[in-house]
Design a protein that fits this description.
The chain is mostly helical and 284 residues long. The chain is built from eleven helices and no strands. Helix content is 73%, strand content 0%.
Length: 284
């Protein structure tokens, strides 16, 4: 029997594990980590090995418990728990969404600082330098994404790189519409030679207002996600309670045609969970 080619980055098993969010397992390989020395890419998220392991354990435990509540079979539950290997992919998407939302919030705060500096008569370049000082007071974490990006912009300005080029690179790596809009406006103003300060102040105000509305929507979405999580848990809690409090009442479900009903109910719940997940996965 041919051995599994784990060392081959293009092998089927490694591609399958990458789809499940297991990139951190192969992080030591140079071919699997080509962008290690490059700047942050906010369109993807690479989990640590601890995060991958925790996601797999939690996902497998949840699946094992859910299937055991339905079938009361350790074998069936153990087989179903294998699907927990795909849990890192779900967790990875959640962490990426959280990071992008944090970046948008920090960018909005940067726009407010930028607008204040421009209103005070500073140039755009000096306004970006002042924004770093303002955000450093606002965020105690010196490794906040926006603070790191402002330091990169300052470094590039010191290296005689134009401001619009530095901001365009940030917008490309961020992949966020508001940041791309800001970079395009800055580039157009620099090239056209119009009233740069007035245009930048209006653009900053417009983008800030749009992002404020997006933040309110995100708060409502977070509330609905919590309600959806409660709704997902209720059927399993109810089934477990009945199995513990009235085992004789539930006994017919664990024999003969009862397994068919349980399987149908589980598939119906899975369809409902998938639909709720798709509705709650609205990109802002």
């Amino acid at each position: 029997m041919k051995a599994i080619a784990w060392d081959n980055p293009d092998s089927y098993w490694r591609r399958a594990l990458r789809r499940c969010g297991w990139e951190a397992v192969f992080a030591d390989s140079g071919r699997d980590h080509p962008n290690r020395s490059m700047l942050e890419d906010y369109t993807s998220y690479r989990m640590s090995r601890k995060q991958v392991a925790a996601s797999v354990l939690i996902g497998s435990a949840v699946l094992f418990a859910a299937f055991y509540l339905f079938y009361h079979s350790i074998v069936v539950s153990a087989i179903a728990a294998i699907a927990g290997a795909a849990a890192p992919r779900i967790r990875q998407a959640s962490l990426l969404r959280q990071r992008r939302n944090r970046l948008k919030l920090q960018f909005k705060e940067m726009l407010f600082s930028l607008a204040s500096s421009l209103a005070a008569g500073r140039s755009v370049e000096n306004a970006f330098r002042a924004a770093l000082e303002d955000l450093s007071l606002l965020y105690s974490d010196s490794y906040a994404d926006m603070l790191k990006e402002l330091r990169v912009i300052h470094y590039r300005l010191d290296q005689s790189v134009t401001l619009e080029e530095a901001v365009r690179d940030f917008a490309r790596r961020a992949g966020i519409d508001e940041i791309t809009m800001f970079a395009d406006t800055l580039t157009a103003c620099k090239r056209s030679g119009g009233d740069l300060l007035e245009v930048m102040k209006r653009t900053s105000a417009m983008i800030g207002e749009k992002m404020s509305v997006d933040s309110e929507i995100l708060v409502l979405m977070a509330q609905k996600r919590f309600e959806a999580s409660v709704m997902m848990a209720v059927p399993f809690v109810f089934l477990g309670f009945l199995g513990f409090a009235a085992p004789d009442y539930m006994a017919p479900l664990y024999a003969g045609f009862g397994y068919v009903l349980l399987t149908f109910a589980l598939l119906l719940l899975a369809g409902c969970f998938w639909l709720i997940f798709k509705i709650m996965s609205i990109e802002m």
